[in-house]
Amino acid sequence: MFEAIGRPQDAVRSGIGLAGLALVAVLLAATACKGREGSTMAAAPSDTGEKPLEKKILDSPVAGSWYPADPQALRKDLEGYLAAADVTQARRTGARIVALVSPHAGYRYSGGVAAHGYRMLQGQAIRRVIVMGPSHHVPFTGLALPDATHWRTPLGEVPIDTKAVAALASSPLFQVREDAFRREHSVDMQVPFLQVVAPGAMLVPIVVGSLTPEAEKAAGEAIHALMDEGTVVVASSDFTHYGEDFGYVPFTTDVPANLKALADDALAALQARDVGAFRAHEAKTQDTICGRFPIAILLEALPKTAEAEVLKFDTSGRMTGEWGHVVSYASVVFQVPPARHAFEGVTVIPEADQRFLLTLARDTLQRHLAGRNLPDPEREGRVPESVRKDFGVFVTLKERGDLRGCIGSIAPVEALWKGVIRNAVNAASEDPRFRPVQRDEEPLIEIEVSVLTPPVGVRGPEDIVVGRDGVLLTKGRNRAVFLPQVAPEQGWDLPTTLTHLAMKAGLAGDAWKTGTTFEVFQAQVFNEAGMKP
């Protein structure tokens, strides 16, 4: 089945190249200014006439010791760590990564663990990364900000988001102090990874001193205020530091198993997003988690819908065989799932209301073909509650199993029952691939309704699941859409689906492979044949 891409006022017909169709802008305007719940869209900078800040660079304090000083060698190491990190099972289609907990030891010890979190970020549009690391060298209370415009590693310079730094500095919790950054590695160890996976992002570096729980909460609120759709937060932390040198020897036997048990207890609190449980773990075990303050701030800052997953755990002892002096490392990702997941495994439109919509579509088709007034169930007081909500919806007409018309709207621009009426008429008379349906054909027509979730952007084809996801492809001004049932009905795999979708958009068949954006949605599909006893 092929179908039309919809817009609010009219139906944009399927089967045509969409480049240059000004009418599509109506649909875009209806959605372009809306971010995900709990976030704001970042505005483009304007010319304020302000004098640019004098360039001031913070250099890596550990390049050449904790990681290679040679840029080619460093990039090779990082790309190797990233290539070896398997996060396939952790990826959530359409989800947005909002935060990581990542280790900061020398890369030969913790690079493989850290790479799991940064592998998750590859392909995500990231404008800014806030990195919070603990202070290992300068004791102080509060949070330290840099007096700099750029951070430099062997891979080059990263611009610091000085406006975000200034916004944080307006709080008494934060202070600008150069001494906190001079020798500190906890922030720096995250920067080269960011230069590889998010090369266009700005940096907000923060060194965290000692804090009370109340200060952690206040700092979390300040960080949360910066967490728009283009921002990711990283809490830089190693986990248990075990051995006489660290002053922490709570056990002397079964060290690997006991270290894992300690980490599991702490990580369970992170997975539950429970800052109270995390603090209780520290109080009970006296665990030597160096980034406990950054982690607590992160937990306080997270969006309510964020979901945590532990990607990787390891220890230096496993690598070196030295269990009298060992550090644990963990990589944790926090993802915000898209709203469309509400359709997975849930009957959004109950069966009785599905019957109502199919009956309404049939009544509409009959009246339209007879030249009579269209039905008005609202005036008669018989509209079920579930179909009063706004949904994107397509109506498909088939005759003896063959497509006879299909038009709809992707965006949720009107009440579902109204969309069914409008698109039943348009599918019968406005699909340019077919002549209008005639009155004598009506008994032969079978009607199908597809109720859609709102479309959400994905990173690329790897996040598209054939048979589950409908796909909206955009390349420049060219756009086209397939409903989820198209590929299974045609027997297509994903590359074949995307090839046909590119051609439907008026592009070359392989145009989807580069420079293309994808949005996906799901559909609850029901038809008259499925409703028969």
Task: Describe, in short, the structure shown.
This protein has helices at residues 24-31, 71-84, 107-121, 162-169, 179-182, 191-197, 213-224, 255-271, 275-285, 292-301, 316-320, 351-370, 416-429, 486-490, 494-504, 528-531, and strands spanning 57-59, 96-102, 128-134, 143-145, 150-153, 156-159, 174-176, 202-208, 231-236, 241-243, 307-315, 325-336, 392-399, 402-409, 445-452, 456-458, 470-475, 478-482, 517-521, 523-527.
Present the secondary structure layout.
Blueprint: H1 24-31, E1 57-59, H2 71-84, E2 96-102, H3 107-121, E3 128-134, E4 143-145, E5 150-153, E6 156-159, H4 162-169, E7 174-176, H5 179-182, H6 191-197, E8 202-208, H7 213-224, E9 231-236, E10 241-243, H8 255-271, H9 275-285, H10 292-301, E11 307-315, H11 316-320, E12 325-336, H12 351-370, E13 392-399, E14 402-409, H13 416-429, E15 445-452, E16 456-458, E17 470-475, E18 478-482, H14 486-490, H15 494-504, E19 517-521, E20 523-527, H16 528-531
Parallel strand pairs: 1-5, 2-9, 3-8, 3-9, 4-7
Antiparallel strand pairs: 2-12, 4-8, 5-6, 10-12, 11-12, 13-14, 13-15, 15-20, 16-19, 17-18, 17-19
Helix pairs in contact: 2-3, 7-10, 8-9, 9-10, 12-13
Task: Kindly list the characteristics that best describe this protein.
single chain, 533 residues, alpha+beta, Protocatechuate 4,5-dioxygenase, Chain B, Glycoprotein, Type 4 Pilin, 2 domains, 9-stranded mixed β-sheet, 4-stranded antiparallel β-sheet, 16 helices, elongated, disordered N terminus
